[in-house]
User: What shape does this take?
Amino acid sequence: MKRFALFVSLLGAIILSSCAHEEPSRQEKFLAAAPRSILVVPVVNKSVDVTAADYMLSTVSFPLAEHGFYVFPVNLVKRMLEDDGLADSSLVHSSSTTKLAALFGADAVLYITIERWDAKYAVISTTVTVGASYEIRDAKTNSVIWKNKAEVTYQPNNNSGGGGIGSLVSAVVSAAVAKAAPDYMPLARQANNQALHPYPGNGIPPGPYAPKVEK
Assistant: This one.
């Protein structure tokens, strides 16, 4: 019995050791590549909102720059890629990272795919959701050095405190307005911050131009 218990204990230790070895810190490859500049390419949009990609693209530069990286102007990048025959974002994402980075002299390339960009209407409430996946590839090796996902939701607070039919009508009107003209931009910014900034954790380590670089 003692031998069996010892065997189980040793087996558990081996499994845990193996798992720890197979799941290294998500920042190890990023730290080894040590990119100083990041090229953000046009966003792949899986939602039905045709404006989602441009809106998302416009919200990415600030959190990256704030985190200590040089970020190439996203509108200029988009225009130059279009001039080179890469107007389709899916085509850009399937192109060689090394070749894309060489066009601008970037150290790494950030690819973003919008998974959710929608507003679901339920008579007295509307839930607005933005979800995206993020992936950074090294310019030298074409390999993925970091990836993450984020999804944020917003539901307007329709509690007026008055109760009764007036409160119900107010809730219905508020939900209809949110459905007709949802404000995605704050959610896009929150998704970026959620995916990029939490460090230590799943976010990217601070860049070389951050005020206080964490060792």
Remarks:
- The chain has nine helices and six strands.
- The chain has a mean pLDDT of 81.
